[in-house]
Amino acid sequence: MTPREQAAFAAGIETARQMAMVAAVTLETRDDAGEVRHRAAVAALQGLAEGLRTLTTQQPEEHNRESS
Q1: pLDDT single digits (tens) 1-59
Q2: Are 38 and 32 in contact (CB under 8 A)?
Q3: Do the beta carbons of residue 37 and residue 22 sit within 8 Å?
Q4: Cα end-to-end span (Å), the chain
Q5: Of 4, 3, 9, 18, nearest to 48 (Cα)?
Q6: How many CB atoms lie within 10 A of CB 26?
Q7: 41, 7, 16, 9: which is closest to 27 by C-alpha?
Q8: CB 3.0 to 4.6 Å from 17: which of 24, 26, 52, 60, for a disulfide?
């Protein structure tokens, strides 16, 4: 990837990570946050955010090798 493509990739991943965390926090603060389906959704969104965070910590060469 070119440096510009790498920057765009990193920015998109970071935006998606932040959106997942915002959605998780929003669900956690609802009055019905204790329901099983809401807790499951929060856990899934937090897992998604963590997975996206690991993408941003990988070196570009590592990402290219894994996607081949």
Answers
A1: 899 999 999 999 999 999 999 999 999 998 888 889 989 999 999 999 999 999 877 75
A2: yes
A3: no
A4: 13
A5: 18
A6: 12
A7: 41
A8: 52
User: What is the three-state SS of 1-65?
Assistant: CCHHHHHHHHHHHHHHHHHHHHHHHHHHCCCCCCCHHHHHHHHHHHHHHHHHHHHHHCCHHHHHH
List the structure tokens of 1.
């990837």
Q: Which two tokens stand for residue 36?
A: 């099983």
Tell me which residue has tokens 């929060």.
Answer: 42
Residue 20 exposed, middle or buried by CB count within 10 Å (0-12, 13-18, 19+): buried
Model confidence pTM above 0.85: no
State the Cα–Cα distance between residues 68 and 4, nearest whole angstrom: 20
